[in-house]
Amino acid sequence: MSDNVIKFRRPEKPPEPPQPKRPRGPMPDWVPFACILAAAVAIYLAGQAGIFG
Question: pLDDT truncated to tens, each residue of the chain (53 aa)?
Fold first, then answer.
């Protein structure tokens, strides 16, 4: 009797294609100034620490 039983097997789903990444919006206007300020502070602190001689 158990020879006639068909075991259930889930049908294999094809893998979903990767979702395309959304393009980032434009960079805020304050980012370049923040980068320049951060670089200036880093250079100042490096000079105070004596790294530049």
Answer: 567 777 778 888 888 888 888 888 888 999 999 999 999 999 999 999 988 76
